[in-house]
Amino acid sequence: MMETRIDDGDRGRAWSRRALLAHAPRVAVGALALARAAGLSPVGADAAAPPTSSALRRVAILKSPQGFAGQCAFMSVGGKSVLVMANNESDYMNQISIDATAPAAPLLLAESAAFQYCWGVGAAGSLLAFVSSASARVGVYNPTTLAQTWERSVPAQAHAVATDGNNVFLAQEGADSFLVLRGTTGATLGTAALRGGTFGKIYGTVYAAGHAYVADPRLGVVIFDVSTPSAPAYVTRFGPGTSNIAVNKTRVWVVPDPTPSGSSLQCWDVSAPASPRQIGTATVPPRQDNGTTIQPTLFVPASNAAGTRLYVVFKELTNGGGRNLWNTTGFYVFDVSGPAPRYVNRFAYQFPNGAYPDALGIAVDAAGSTVALTNYDYGLELWQASGDAWRLASLVPTVGECRDVYVDASGNQIALGRWIVTSKTATGQVSYYNEMGFLFEGWRPYVRGTILVMDSNTGNGFPRVYSSVNGQLTKLGQAALGGGQVTDVAYDGADYVYACSKSSGLTSGRVSPSSPTNVAQLGALAIGAERITLNGRSEAWVVGPTLGVARVDVGNPSAMAMAFHDTEAFTENGMCGICVAAGRVYAACGSTGVRIYNPHALRRTGAITTDPYSGKIFATWVEPYTSPATQKTYLVVCHYGDGLSYNPPEGIRIYSLANPDAPALVVAYPASGDANFRCRVANGQLYRCALWGVEQLAVNGL
């Protein structure tokens, strides 16, 4: 057996950090031009028909990029190099087909939403199969139109699927069965039994030369003979536990789970399938960076058609498996023409803000000249090669969650995602930019028409101050409050601002009238506040999952004091909210619904916990709405379980506050499989922030 060790001295890059930063804006512009030319925002299926509601009417949608991209594969169809990919998460972003014949100018062919949480892809010849990562469903679709050929349920879940162009192969997680389905109808042709246990989570299943290879995290690589599809047979299993494999003819490359001594890549000879033989290995040892151990860790591999190059997803992990946004992630290139994989180079794309998208899936086209790299944080990267010199050809944003949206008085929209800002002018022009940070906690109004945007996970976590003109944000700086890690703020409209900080609790500061970024800290109260609202200038109401709900006297910002505390904790999914309306305080408390407080009596006076559509309300946000026609006040509640307390259908509920302690449901906008984070009110309309973007809703009859 031959072995290759990748030393620190071998760690080259095609581009320097400076070159990557210089190149990134030009590439991003090209990708966004693609989306506009197609009449789309980011790639990802249009939102399904809106729920039926006489009071709410969909005016428009704005899709926002986030990624959630899963597995991918290239297919040769009608002389085109077609990339098919799964985009995991909600109903509106599942399957994507792209003509990548010209990698610098990819063309969207089709997008569809077969089922939720689409993850696994299998492609060969003209047969394309997808599987769901959340439900036990599999289907076959047309590669260029994504029209369904068939779809069916299977006995158990699967995260990976393979095909030989005629049949579909699935390992059943948590069971000992391996299924062969007819490619034209989905009918079960045969079943083989695994020996020695049951399958774990299967993220890799590959077909080659009459055999199916299944990557199991405990059992290693399991081989089935599928040369007779109606009678598949277990052959053997070999190697260490793994989730990531690639196969070409009689070679199998295995990426074992990493160990403290480093990550590795093994090459096995399976010319005699019953007796696999390891013939080579390459190791990627950890390195030290200012006292921190950095482990470049290998994940998903993909082989070129000739079997001479292997492209492997890598991520630099720290502290025994953790990863931050500034750890490099991309793909390695190995020369695998011999038995021992030989490191050639590595390549990575860096966002202009210095962070790296989290690479997940990889595929190489039939010519070996284009690599597709899917990632969680943006979508798709297409790389083009001349020999072993790879360059980024284009970026394609794919649909993902929108955390919040800012809408100005003219109707310009700014959608805040985890990475990307999506801007839509009142005239309908859409653009994107990624100079922002990660996992936005939303925005709040601030001094002289500016807004504060929270990003508690990037840098020190101070809120950033932005001005907005025609739907475009301009960063003015940071408002340094407390210890940073700020999740929410409230500005009193005059002199003071209050911040919920994960590190310093509730913090108060005086705002400089001449500079909105100049904030002098005055006081701090050590409570676990996550969201805040003001009721006048002398009292603040805060909410948090461990805190419960509290009123804080802020008449003297330097000496804030808690005046009331409802200590009942609750479970959230990363979101809770609080607002003042109709003389009451309404707190969105996740698993316990909406709590109602009388701010004068300082007691809880009501609650919203049940729902005629879903049985239970899992409240993530509350927002007051005043009807322009009647001036009546209503409460908008966002219902989103996110698997913690899932009670579908989710979506929006609107309550009359004629009796503020017993709100009456007057409008339901149940969105099946389409959860939302926030819902903002602007210019008499609602803007629902969903897992795919923003839905603009006109309100009628209230």
Draw up the topology in text.
Blueprint: E1 2-5, H1 17-37, E2 56-63, E3 69-77, E4 80-87, E5 95-99, E6 107-112, E7 118-124, E8 127-132, E9 137-141, E10 148-153, E11 162-163, E12 167-171, E13 177-182, E14 188-193, E15 204-208, E16 211-216, E17 220-225, E18 233-238, E19 242-248, E20 251-256, E21 263-269, E22 277-284, E23 287-289, E24 292-303, E25 309-318, E26 329-335, E27 342-347, E28 359-364, E29 370-375, E30 379-386, E31 389-397, E32 402-407, E33 413-417, E34 421-424, E35 430-433, E36 442-445, E37 451-454, E38 464-469, E39 472-478, E40 486-491, E41 496-501, E42 505-511, E43 519-525, E44 531-534, E45 539-544, E46 548-553, E47 561-566, E48 577-581, E49 584-588, E50 594-598, E51 603-608, E52 610-611, E53 615-616, E54 619-626, E55 633-639, E56 650-656, E57 664-671, E58 676-682, E59 685-690, E60 693-699
Parallel strand pairs: 1-22
Antiparallel strand pairs: 2-60, 3-4, 4-5, 5-6, 7-8, 8-9, 9-10, 11-12, 12-13, 13-14, 15-16, 16-17, 17-18, 19-20, 20-21, 21-22, 23-24, 24-25, 25-26, 26-27, 28-29, 29-30, 30-31, 32-33, 33-34, 34-35, 36-37, 37-38, 38-39, 40-41, 41-42, 42-43, 44-45, 45-46, 46-47, 48-49, 49-50, 50-51, 52-53, 54-55, ...
